[in-house]
Structures
1.
Amino acid sequence: MNTTNQVIVITGGAGGIGQACARTFKDQPIIITDYSQDSVDKTVATLAKEGFRVSGIGCDITNKEDIKKLTSFVSEAGTLKALVHTAGVSGSAKDLQKVYTIDLVATELLIDAFYELATEGSVAILMSSMMAHTVPANKVYDDALANPQAADSFDTVSQQVNNNADTMYNFVKRGVQLLMHKNAEKWGEKGARIVTVSPGVIETPMALKASEEHPERMKMLKEATPLKRNGQPEEVADVVHFLVSDAARFINSTDILVDGGVLQNIKKMM
Ligand SMILES: NC(=O)c1ccc[n+]([C@@H]2O[C@H](COP(=O)([O-])OP(=O)(O)OC[C@H]3O[C@@H](n4cnc5c(N)ncnc54)[C@H](O)[C@@H]3O)[C@@H](O)[C@H]2O)c1
C-alpha cells in the first residue's frame, strides 16, 4: 500500500456534480469511478489535460465484485482521504427497484467497503437530496431505509410511495441520511467522519432530464427559490471541498443543505 498519497475517490465522477467535485482538488490524487469504463476514460483524459493528478476505474456500484476491484485500486494508489459518493439516479429511472438499489443499497455497500480503507482523518461524503427533508420520520419505514439489504425492506418502503419513482427517490435519499447517522459511531472510532450533502436543483444532466419531464414543477421550484435561480454543480462541489478539508474536521454525522433556500418554501406549500 502506498501511504504517502491521500486519495480522493469520486463515484459518479463522470457526472455533473462528480466532475465539478473533482475539479476542486487541484493538488491531490483523484480517483474517478463511474458506471461505464468509457465515460471514466474520457473524464480522466479531460481532467489530466487540465493538469489534475487523476486516474480512474469503471465500477457498477450495485455490484460487489466491482466494488472490490475499486477498493483494491484505491488501496494500491494510497490511503483514503475522502470518498465523495455522487453516483446515483433520479426518479426519471421510472423503476422503483432501480432507484432503491442504486441510490440506497449501493450506498450501504460503498460505506461498508470504504470503512475498511478509512483511517484517522478520512471522510465519507454522500449525496442525499433536499427532497429527503420532505419525508417525515417514521419508525416503520425508517428501520427499512436504514437496513436496505434486509429481506422485507424494499417492500416496506414501496408500500409508502404509491408506485411513483420520484417519491421513491425522496424516501431513499432520506435513507442515505439514516445510513450516515447509523455509521457515525463506527467511523468515529477510527477518527473518520461521515456526512451527507443535500443539493437543491442543480443544473446537471440529471436535472435537465427532470426539467424535460416536469417543466412546470422545475419552473415553480426556481421561482420558489429566494435566490431566483437554480444551483450550479460548482456550488455543491465547493461545499464538498470544504467538508473534505481540515477546516471541517469537527463536522460529522450531519446533513448539509445546499439548496439556495428553496426547501423552506417547499415545506410551506406541502
Ligand atoms: N442535480 C440535481 O439537481 C441533484 C439534486 C439533489 C441531489 N442530487 C444528487 O447528486 C448526485 C449527483 O447527481 P448529478 O446531478 O451529478 O447526476 P448525473 O446524472 O450528472 O451524475 C450521476 C452519475 O452517476 C452514475 N451512475 C448511475 N448509476 C450508477 C451505477 N450503478 N454505478 C456507477 N455509477 C452510476 C452515472 O453514470 C452518472 O455519471 C446524485 O446522487 C443525485 O441524486 C442531484
2.
Amino acid sequence: MNSIVALISALFILLSAAISEAAPPALPKGYSAWKKSERKVVTDKSSLFYGIHYIYADKKAQSGYQAGNKFPEGSRIVVEFFNIKDNPAVDGSKNMIVLMQKDRRQTSSGGWLFAGFGADGKLSSLDPVTTCFGCHQKDAAQKDFVISTKKDFK
Ligand code: HEC
C-alpha cells in the first residue's frame, strides 16, 4: 500500500515538473525555407502593420490555407516585419517577428499559440491572449483565426 502511494506521488511530482517546465515559445528553425507570401507593403502610418511584411507557412499550414483556412494541429505560420526606408521598394531593417502555432492546449486563444518576438528573435512582452488573439478573433473568427488566405501566397 505504502509503495503504491509513494509511486503515485512520485508520478505526480514528475508530471507537475513536466508541466511547469514547458519551454517558452521559440521561433521555429528554418522557417525562411517555408512557403513565402508575396511582399506586402502597408504605407498607412496609423496601421499596426505599417511597413513591409512577408508571411511564411509550413507544410501543414499550407494544407490549411488550401482547405479554406481549416488548419491541422501543429500548423505553423510566421510573419517577418521590416521598416520602410525612403524608397519603399527596398526592405528596411527587420523590426518584429510573430508566430502562430496550432496547439489544442491553448484553449484561451482559439487553439493557437500566439507569440511575438523582437528582431533579435527574443520573446516580446506582447500579451498573446488579449493583444494577439483579441485582434485575430475580431477579424477572423470564421477563418480559424487566421486573417490571410491562400490568395496571399500566389
Ligand atoms: C490590430 C490587430 C492585430 C494584432 C494586435 C495582431 N495581429 Fe496578427 N495579423 C493581423 C492582420 C490584419 C494580419 C494579416 C496580415 C496580412 O494579411 O498580410 C495578421 C497576420 C498574422 C499572422 C499570419 C497568419 C494570419 O492570421 O494571417 C500571424 C502568425 C500573426 N498575425 C500573429 C500575431 C501575433 C503573435 C500577435 C501578437 C504578438 C498578433 N498577430 C497581433 C492583425 C493583428
